[in-house]
Amino acid sequence: FYPIDKTTPTTTTTTSSTSWLPHGNDIRYANGLASYASIPKFIFRRLRSHTMVATSTTAAGRDDDDNDNDVAPSPIDLKTLAHDRVILFSHGLGGHRNMYSALCMSMAARGYVVIAMEHCEGSACCAVPLYTPFAPPVTSPTSATATNPLTVDANPPPTVNGGDDNHHHHHHKAYTMVPYMRPPVLEPHKKHKKKHTTTATTTSDDASAVSAATPLPAKTHAELQDASDLHFREKQLGERLTDVENIADAIRTKNLLGPLFGEKDAASNFATSASLQLVGHSFGGATVVGAAARATETFRNNKNNTSSSSSPVAAKATVGGMPLLGFTALDVWLWPAKSLSDKVFINPSSSQSPSSPIFSPDSTTANPTASTDVPFSVQFIDSEQWERWSENRNAIKELVDTINKSSSYCTPPTEAPTTTDDTPAAVDDASDEVAVVPPPRAVRHYTPQTDHLAASDMALFLTLGVGRKKYVDCKKSSQVIGEWAGLVLSQK
């Protein structure tokens, strides 16, 4: 999603659109949404008639296989383009890359380039990898990502070819589909259905790794199931973090944005000067927290390793080589990333188990002299539904409070603060200088009368009678997109 230049001959003067369900309205995405939400398929199949409307000032990327509408991408508007950042967006559990098109286009309309990822590790409602051993890379000239395959998954998750109604869309069979995958269910021990003393039989190798490695103290089946679920989600999170790093690296080194700029040098200059802002919703929120935590740990290690030498230290943490401006987590589902965020942001001197898939090797040993610097801004935006979830809310508040406790987390503003009542700012009598109060490094916002769907396009599709909370003001929920887009872009 990006601002377009309306003055060029190749830019159409009329409003254009592209299918909301990816890959030319592939029915498998609708079926995957129904399966994830446990809602009859016919409700989501009507989404095949929905499109993402590109306004006169923004454009949405075209589907890779939308061969009936192959046109050159509209050139980016360099005059209105915000050169300070690229926004990388991570979808939530059961989502897909177009699920947040309203929010992404709201940010693009203000001059920003927004790249919406689609994770292919089984957390999306459905995903079609551009390049796997089971499907050749897509080579459509209109797709910026098609000519730059980022990863080759040597051990991809189970895949399904074809699907319902594919006789109406013959080209869909050429793609390998990764379905939504739920955590495996542990089978209770025959003699100890309530308690487990050592291991548990399971339907998945991933789940058995939780209890098979070492003897466990007596735990209920529910506790073992929770541990298995966490291991499963942490493994998915680890793959999501790799996605973030690979795409950031592709922006910087592989001319990922080249087709939008027209000139390779223009794209390269933009990618070299821009910072990276990570934004995610729900599981995507955990993804950006985890990616920022990894970047923070690397930044601290580099700082500690060069503190006694004359080597220069990077002023910012980086992701895929791009400077990290900060992250915004919308209704973050913190649980999958909590052990990593606790280790990095709350207790950096602790050690962690090397078996966890989300930790780097540097995290597995305790470091009593670990730095506590966080060289970027942190922002959480919560709906009322998430505000009511006390366990998750308290974990977020603890994270925010811990980051803000130390002045080392704060960056003083360049100007003295102004007040709404025009009263003078505070003055230090000893020095006769304006006392500048550093802003908090981490902030949390809360919007009443909204639910978890408000950040996504689903808030525009579903009514109170289908999956919405009674306290939700549907009108406000549909209007909150612009407000939240403004909060994301206010991050400095």
Offer a concise description of the structure:
The chain is an alpha/beta fold.
Shape designation? globular
Distance between the termini: 21 Å
Beta-sheet strand percentage? 5-15%
The value of Rg in angstroms is: 24 Å
List descriptors.
7-stranded mixed β-sheet; 32% helix
Give your account of this protein's structure.
With about 500 residues, the protein is of the alpha/beta class. About 30% of the residues lie in helices and about 15% in strands. The protein is built from 14 helices and 19 strands. The protein has helices spanning about 20-25, 25-35, 40-45, 100-110, 205-210, 220-255, 260, 265-275, 285-305, 340-345, 385, 390-405, 460, 475-490, and strands at about 1-5, 15-20, 50-55, 60, 85-90, 115, 125, 180, 185, 195, 200, 220, 275-280, 320, 320-330, 375-385, 425-430, 435, 440-445. The strands form seven sheets. Strands 5, 6, 13, 14, 15, 16 and 19 form a seven-stranded mixed sheet that branches. Helix 6 (about 220-255) crosses helix 9 (about 285-305) and helix 9 (about 285-305) runs parallel beside helix 10. The protein is globular, with a radius of gyration of 24 Å.
